[in-house]
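Practice problem: predict the structure.
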Amino acid sequence: MQCDITNNSQMNIDELSPLIDDLASHVQGVMDINSLPAITLQEDADNADVILGKTAHYDPQNMVVTVYVT
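Answer:
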């Protein structure tokens, strides 16, 4: 199953996208999840400047995982 991936970054995800799909499919099978959350790749320069800045977060109401890629 393919993930819904939104790329809000300058990063080229052509090679990364199939890996995300493989990981999500594996997690879905292992954890018996019916539907996968959407994934957003997000740049955030301010967050990147913080030594212990966020790496990701999950919004359960909208079923979106945001991954900070900066």
